[in-house]
Amino acid sequence: MKTILVIDDERPIRENIEEFFDSVGYQVISAENGSEGVQKAIVGLPDLIICDISMPIMDGYQVFETIQKIPQLATTPFIFLSARTQIEDLSKGLQMGVDDYITKPFRLNELFTRVKKRIEKHETIKNDYLLKFDALANNPFVGLLIIQDDRIRYFNKKICELFEYKEDNVLNLDVSQAIFSQKTYYEIQTKSENSDEIVLEQAELLTLSGEIIVQKIYAKNIQFDNRKAILITINQNETIFSNVQIQETNYTSDFDKILARIMKLHDLDLANDFMSFTNHLSQVIKKEDILKKKLNISDREIDVLTLICQGYTNIEIGEHLFISPRTVDGHRNSLMLKIGAKNSAQLVAFAIKHKIVEL
Question: Does the pLDDT at position 13 exceed 50?
Fold first, then answer.
């Protein structure tokens, strides 16, 4: 049973809404002012909030602003209810981010339609997010972490493989002491305070055995168990370089010796140049790498092409890779230009022909 919170200082309106929604299978909580409404929202965690604008103690705008600061309620659908019809009032509500706006007097069946629509949309978004989260968590090439209060609250199997941990030892691991270097973790914390989505091009990762891995990672602010957390994805294909416990002996080749010396200098640019040069000389090159060299296709474009082949839209690809739909469209257009494709179907045909993806 879905729960609705009604906040309005007019008792007849509260009672009419409560009686009507109770008759159609909803549970209704009511409050006679904004302050009481916020308190009942925190306790009751409703599925939707209907709130009047003009109220004593705390008006509707203040209620909405307060609700947005509470992690457990920040995404709850919110409908303003008011006798005001001025355009500026309507505009203010929408600019603040409310989901809907209905003016008094109103018909209960109209309010019911709005409420039902908003709850269903919220459920659809939530379920879609969970499906995409599961797909990402089960991706064999992507490590996924959820960090909350400096500790790992969720991880997938790829994390154990990347960092050489047993599954029993990962949950609640303090990431300020492991997984990331102190420099990288500080950067994650600092940047996530100012942006919901961040990319670190050269994050320093630490394995249990002492291996230093430098690679690109993606971080996103999310709600986990109704509290703020950070979702981090680590794509194994985007590793820049790694080096196992730098020592002065037992190197398997001159390559290892040179790389170790570069690592001691902490010169990431020099290390990147060195790795690029040695990779260029390697005689063992995958077909995908040959195509990328011939056509100058980047790793990110390969990621986008793979998801295009799986039927994802630009918006879905953006959510999957933590980039904007406009950036996805740019990669798509770049691929079409490099490959000589006129549409997405030809992109897919190219990928299948050259075995870039397995369908």
Answer: yes
Tell me the pLDDT tens digit for each residue of 180-196.
Answer: 888 888 899 889 888 88
79: helix, coil or strand?
strand
pLDDT at 228: 84
Residue type, 312: Y
Question: What's the farthest any 2 CA atoms get from each other in the chain?
Answer: 84
The model's pLDDT over 149-205, given as tens digits with 9 standing for 90+, comes to 899 999 999 999 888 888 888 998 988 778 988 888 889 988 988 888 899 988 988
pLDDT for res 21: 94
Radius of gyration of the chain (CA): 26
Q: Are strands 100-103 and 78-82 parallel, antiparallel or unpaired?
A: parallel
Q: Where are the alpha helices (DSSP H) in the chain?
A: 11-23, 34-44, 60-68, 87-96, 108-137, 157-163, 182-194, 254-265, 268-281, 287-295, 299-309, 314-321, 325-339, 344-353
Measured CA to CA, the distance from residue 55 to residue 32 in angstroms comes to 8
Q: How far apart are CA 268 and CA 283, in angstroms?
A: 25
DSSP annotation string for 145-172: EEEETTEEEEE-HHHHHHHT--GGGTTT
Query: What does DSSP say about strands 179-180 and 197-206: parallel, antiparallel, or unpaired?
Result: antiparallel
Q: Choose among 354, 242, 235, 239: nearest CA to 303.
A: 235
Whether 302 shows a pLDDT value over 80: the answer reads yes
- Residue 280, classified by CB atoms within 10 Å of its CB into exposed (0-12), middle (13-18) or buried (19+), is exposed
Cis peptide before 46 (omega within 30 of 0): no
171 Cβ neighbours under 8 A, 6+ residues apart? 152, 153, 155
